[in-house]
Structures are given as C-alpha cells and as structure tokens.
Amino acid sequence: MVDTVIVVKIAAIVVTFVLTILFGLGPAWFVSARNQRYKQRGRTPALLSCFAGGVFLATCLLDLIPDVEEELNLALAGAHLSYPGFPLPLFVVAMGLFMVLTVEQVALQYHHRPLQARRNGAHVALETPVSLINEEEDVNAMEMGEMRAETAEPDQGDDHEHLHASLRSWSLLLAISLHSVFEGIAVGLQKETSAVLQLMTAVALHKSVMAFSLGMALVQSSMGRTTTVGLSIFFAITAPTGMAIGMAVESSSQSSHHHGVSGVLTGLATGTFLYVTFLEVLAHELKSNRDRLLKLAAILLGFFTVVGLMFLDADMKEGRHFCPEQFQNLTFATDAELVQTP
User: Fold this and answer.
1) What are phi and psi of 80, to 5 degrees?
2) Backbone phi, then psi, for 340, in 5-degree steps?
3) Any transmembrane segments, and where (predicted)?
C-alpha cells in the first residue's frame, strides 16, 4: 500500500507547479501596458503577501526551528558529539539566511556595475566637449548641447531603463528561485501528512504571489514572450525540484547521517523562510502607508491559521513542540528541586 504522506507530497508537487505556472504566465497573457501599474499596486496582491508573511513567520518560529533542533540533536547523539552552550540549530538557520542574502547581493552588485559604468561613460562623453570649447563659443555650444541632450536623452534613458529592468528581473529570478528550492525541500522533508499540507499551503500561496510579481517584472522589462514563458516555467519547477530532493533525503535510512543532512537542509530552508518573511514580504508591504490595518490583520490571520493547524495536528497534541527538548523529561519533586527522570 502506498504511503499517504508520499501521495500528498506528489500532489503538492503537482499543485504547486500548476499554480505557479498559472500565476506566472497571467501577466503576460492578460495584463496590458495600460493597467500594469494598477495591477501591481492592487490591494489583493498586497494582502495575499501579508497573509503569506504571517504563515511563514508562524511556520518558522513554531514548527521548523523545533524540527531543526530535533534532527540535529539526533544526528549529534548518533555521532557521539555535543555542543554545550552553543545554539547550533539557530546557527544553521542564520547561515541559510546569510546564504540567500549573499547570493542576492552579489547578483545585484554584479549586474549594477556594468550599468553604472555605462552611465558614467555617457556623462564623461557629454562633459568633455564642453570643457574644451573656447570661451567665445560657450553660449552657442551650450545651446547646441542642450538641443542635442533633449534629442538624445529620451532614447538613452529608455535604453538604460530597459536594461536596468531586465537585469533586475534576472536578479529577482535568481533570488526567488533559490528561495523556492529550499522552500520545496522543507516540504519534502516533512514526515507527517498534516505538516506537508501546512507547508504546501504556505508554499503554494507564496509561490503564486511571487510568480505573479515575477511575471509583472518580466513583462515590464520588455522581454520577449518566449523568454517570459521560459523563465516562468523555470521558476515553476524550482519548488517541485526542492520537494523531490527533500523526499529523497527523507526516505533514506534513518541514520545519524540522515538526521544530520535533514537538519542542515531544514535549517537552511528555515533561514530562507525568515529572509522571505522579514526582508522581502513584510519589509516591502509595511513601508507603504496604504491599508496598514488591513495588512496587519492579514499577517495575524496567516500566523494564527498556522497556530490553528498545529493544535489540530495529533503530533502537536503530544507536546513535541510545546517546550524545549531539554525540559520534556523533567519532573518537579519539590518547589526548589528538579529531578531528571531516568
């Protein structure tokens, strides 16, 4: 008989892929140049992003971080290692956040330099003839320079803007694709149906919003339709690829090596979730003065949706996540003494 968890994970792969494709290609098919700005700044995408941010926040703090701690503790116990006083699980989570941040900043810096060099070169080319003209020709030269600038600047500005938009789209694709792979890994590593459904909902919702945003960026960068479709399909397969990787790791033998790989991958994925939550979703949405209370309500709704799912989870009822592992085997003998149970 096929394991129910495996069936749910396969369904999660299909659902996530289909939703990402639909939302990613939507702007290219339906959004015209006249209403792109309205669609991009609409209320519904912003509230969906805030809801996804609340879901990711609760998932990170209440579910994934305890899972990372459990897996790494099992791995270290099997390898007869210890790390007294050092928060190794949180360190791995932080490394996941810094890894994604580093990749994104390096990509942005790499693409920014050629564009800046072109702009600086253009400025030098315009300034050099002015510095070499005679004083008697200053007025005429300046007038002619202004006429040439008025004629040339619009085309140059358009070229620079299109180039910048194109590079921004590629950088965005690289960054969110890396997020998507690790988010998919987090889904594939789950061992229970309820946990898979919980993370699948969060990932599918977030991927849909991000796919729509990516599609908008690709359309605005004036890329060809074939390129836009190809990049949208590429992004759509990143999360399913991560889920498949997580399933392969989770289905391997339950050794200390397995727990170590699972713990590290889950920790890196958790860092990605934190990056998406704080440095992308919430930071971007809350800087606007529009619909602040509605956005706050959407964040709280997403957070407490996960809390409700955790209370419905039978594994949560056993208390595995309600208290740190070091306190689960303690009983109170007196008010002043704690006795470790055998």
Assistant:
1) 55, 45
2) -75, 125
3) 6-25, 46-66, 86-108, 231-249, 261-281, 293-312
